[in-house]
Amino acid sequence: MSMQAMIDEWYPVGLFSQLDSAGRKTRLMGEPIDVASDADGNARVTSDDGRVLPVRVRYGHVWSSLGEPRKDIFPIPEADQPGRRFVDVGVVRVRCSPLRAVENFLDIAHFPFVHTDILGAEPHTEVQNYKVEIREEEDEVWATQVKFYQPQAAKSASGGITTEYMYRVPAPTCSVLYKTCPPRPSEWDVITLFVQPLAEGLCDVWPWMALFDDETAMTDLIHFQQTIFLQDRSILENQIPSLLPLDPGMEIPTRADLTSIAYRRWLKRHNYTYGAQLVAQ
């Protein structure tokens, strides 16, 4: 399987706030790497054979690549917006394809059944019509006009509301979610999923948030988001096939799966196939 297209992308490999000289031993697409701070406190990433890898620090995380990225890490303008709280949620290891982790994040229909009484509840299970497109100029997948009833859309929400979402896929293993901000309806809360592919069937997931919420304790914000993702983990680890199918005939989509269909088409177009299954077996 050709890996070059995904080798030349940026991936999260650790939290900048947790860097130290001892380093974090981890893997990136099967390759052992070491993430550490140098004498000046800067992030340094090296491969097992001593090669110094590209490094960036964005959105509270250290990013690196086994190849030569042709562009910088995607922008999130809200990360520079005054007044927001930036939440490093931590890391969750999941025995699933890194592409499966992103696709699950894009799925709205599972809310009432997996995140019952938080992000969804019966009988409010219908996914209303929404718009999905691959934006050619940005080369990103976007889903807009997504609306869903939620009993507790955010830690700051005091009751059930119809939440509006926008989903954005700017990189093969990253997704950015914009959703209704209960304390400030004119703004969007930003919740991201940065996925580090350890192997084709194993990944570390690094959620990160940029919120307008001056009331909730940081520990509670982190716990709320970790609770949501841990509910997803058992689903992700039991999906069959474990790799993400890119052949449209391998799974039967519904109207609720429009974002997933566009994501798979976009992956296939770019040959982002690490963690994917190309043909039925």
Automatic annotation (TrEMBL):
Key words, A-Z: Dioxygenase, Oxidoreductase
Boundaries of every Vanillate O-demethylase oxygenase-like C-terminal catalytic domain copy: 94-269
InterPro entries to which the protein is assigned, alphabetical: Cholesterol_7-desaturase (IPR050584), VanA_C_cat (IPR044043)
Xref: SUPFAM superfamilies: Bet v1-like (SSF55961)
Keyword Oxidoreductase included in the entry's annotation: yes
Record-listed E.C. numbers: 1.14.13.-
Gene Ontology molecular function, alphabetical: dioxygenase activity
This protein's name: Aromatic ring-hydroxylating dioxygenase subunit alpha
Organism: Rhizobium redzepovicii
